[in-house]
Structure formats: structure tokens, C-alpha cells
Amino acid sequence: MTVFRVLRYSPSTGEAWKEYRPELKEQASVLDGLHAIRADHDPTLAYRFSCRSAVCGSCAMWINGRPRLACQTKVGQLKSDRVEIAPLRGLSVIKDLVVDMKPLWDAYQKVMPWLVEKPNAETMVVTKKTSDVVEKFYSCILCAACFASCPEAAQQHRYLGPMPLMDGFRMYVDPRDDAKPQRKQILGGPDGAWGCHGAFACIDACPWDVAPVEFIAQLRLELVKEKFGG
Questions:
Q1: H or E element: which one contains 60?
Q2: Contact at 8 Å (CB) between 52 and 42?
Q3: pLDDT digits over 8-21, tens only?
Q4: How much is the average pLDDT of 127-142?
Q5: pLDDT at 187
Q6: Which residues have a Cβ under 8 Å from the Cβ of 153 and sit 6 or more positions away?
Q7: Angle at CA of residue 185, ends 146 and 180, nearest 5°
Q8: pLDDT tens digits, 90-114
């Protein structure tokens, strides 16, 4: 029987590892295991989930040494008789596997993830080249796995992080946007694109293979081209 080892935490008692042996079906996911623990072993276990289809990003957590979506991760595919689960790193823990996402959303807000339309935006055409550049972004489910795996985001709390910078780049290259000077100041600052040290941890972390570091590299290129008139 597979052992689930879960890092429990509450503000009153601190953190401690607890082991459970839930009854699971053959194709059970890690999320199924957490449901079974809460139903049959400990109803106080706290964790986030919603869609169960790897679309909402709510159930991202640290599973067997790396960030994964609990609903997407089958117990069998881990090829281990032990499933070790902890909250996402780099974010404060509220209770058990529930982390405070405010730092991520604060960084996301800073990059202005909305279009500030030019007066003639409705008549402008987004070229296929620009569309192809940002198309891959739309697979991002805002799960915070890349943010939690980024060593720079963990050490430098002012650094915007992979996902916010990726979305900032999407707006930056949109020809219909009328806020490029503000975006340039935010994205081109020391806490923006130049804060990335290329650890590439975000590539392995992303459950949808979005590769935020590739967008950050393209953002850097755009900033350099504009500075030197390329």
C-alpha cells in the first residue's frame, strides 16, 4: 500500500510530517489520495482544488521533490511506494498545503496584465508573427509552479518572477497597446527581465510546458533592440 507522507502545518502547532495509508483505486491521482485522507483519516487536512482537470491550477503543490498538479499526477506514475507532499516553496504557508498567493498576484498586478487600447486599436491588425510569439502563453493556468520553483524569486522578493514577466511580455509586444513606456519601465528594471538568472527551473516546473524563461529571453531581446534601435 502506498504511503502518503504529508507536511502538515498550522499557526498554533507548527509543522510536522504525518503518514497516511489511503485506500486507492488503480488509476488514482495524488488529489484522489488527499481526498481519501480527508474522508477516512483526518478531516482537518487543508489543500486547494477545483476543476480536477489540470486547468484551474489550484492544486499545485510539491510532490516527490518537484512542483506538480495533484490532479494531473497519477500515483502510479511516480513509481514509488511513498508519496511525499509539501506546500509550494517560496510562498508563506497558511495551513497544511495551502499557501498565500498574494506575492504572486501582487507581482502579476505590477506588470499590468491588461490591454491599454490605443485610440485606433479596433482597426489595427495583430500580425501572425506576433500572434505566434504569444500563442503558447495561453496554456498558462496561473498555478504558481514556476514561481515556486524559481530560485531568484525565492531569494529576491522584489523580483517579479516567471509568470508575471511572461504575461507582461505578451502585453508589451501587442501593437494595440498604448502603455508601452510604463511597461518598459516595469519590465526593463532590475526586478524585471534582467532579474532572471537563467536557472531554467520554470521549464521543468510548468505542467503545460509553457517555458516562461523563453518569453523572458524574448522580452530581453525586445528591450535591447529598442534601446539600440535594432
A1: strand 60-63
A2: no
A3: 999 999 999 999 99
A4: 86
A5: 96
A6: 90, 147, 159, 161, 162
A7: 95
A8: 999 999 999 999 999 999 999 999 9
Q: How many residues does the chain have?
A: 230
Q: What are phi and psi of 69, to 5 degrees?
A: -90, 125
149 within 8 A of 205, measured Cβ to Cβ: yes
Phi, psi for 220 (deg, rounded to 5):
-60, -45
Q: Could you tell me the CATH superfamily of domain 3-99? A: Beta-grasp domain (3.10.20.30)
For the record, the C-alpha cell of 73 comes out as 499526477
CB 47 within 8 A of CB 34: yes
Residue range(s) of every CATH 1.10.1060.10 domain in the chain? 102-228
User: Model confidence over 33-86: pLDDT tens digits?
Assistant: 999 999 999 999 999 999 999 999 999 999 999 999 999 999 999 999 999 999
CATH code: domain 102-228 is: 1.10.1060.10
Residues of the chain with CATH 3.10.20.30: 3-99
